[in-house]
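Re-run with default settings, no changes from the original entry. Doing this only to confirm the output is reproducible before filing.
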Amino acid sequence: MLLNTCGTIIEDDGENIIFRNEITSADPNEIISRDHDVEITFSCTYPKQNNLTLGFRHKNPYAFTERGFGAFSFEFEFFESQLFRTKVDASTYPVEVNLKQMMFMQIEATSSIPNTELFVESCRATPYDNPNSRISYTIIEHGCATDSTVQIYPSPKSQFRFGMEAFEFIGAHDEVYITCSVILCQTGIPNTRCSKGCIRSNSGQNRVKREAASETSSHSISQGPLHLVKTSDSQAPGLSMSLGMNIVFIVSSLLVCGVAIYLSRRSKAKYQLLPTSEEN
């Protein structure tokens, strides 16, 4: 039952919120009883303050099983360069990046059946480890890149390699998680989602009903976080000092110029004698 129903009493002892109630075998429609009714008092206590520890876990692999495809899995990795030879070490997560730094990512599918291909239908970024976050940024949609910095690199059919420039969400968000929706298809089968590739939203094409034997369901996989490195403030005092000295220099120059102009005008002033009574 819910905590605010069935006659639950709510108490607050300063450190905890306590919900109390009672289970009884008495007939609520009767006024008296001559039987020994069962009465069980219980309570749930929630501390008002608690300590939480946040940790980052490298998310891999994502394993699934579907009819017609058996067991298959996806791995989502960050790489150190566009050569895709060296993965970012899982022990170093969160991955630190600078704004506009190219990030290199690879999604790889492993299947127990041969002749399969991977298709990445969509990718989106969120500031939290929640793909349904109300704050999100679309990177790939309907198989088409929507971010102008996305670059897709050649790869085998079981892999998808792409890169893009690092960015940050406006506001107090230092981290970025990337979630992609992926599909596995049998190679060479027409009308699968993999064979259609990028579908523009205004193209008028609609996805047909999925054939269980030719493609899997769409699965969501994510990786992160990416941690945006803030610009060092070590140069700030020097910049402030330089700016202050420049301001002092400018003000001093203006004062010197002002005094010079004043003296110049004063030296050119003509004095005339006032008429006296004897001249009248």
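The helical segments are 193-196, 236-267. Confidence is low (pLDDT under 50) at residues 233-245.
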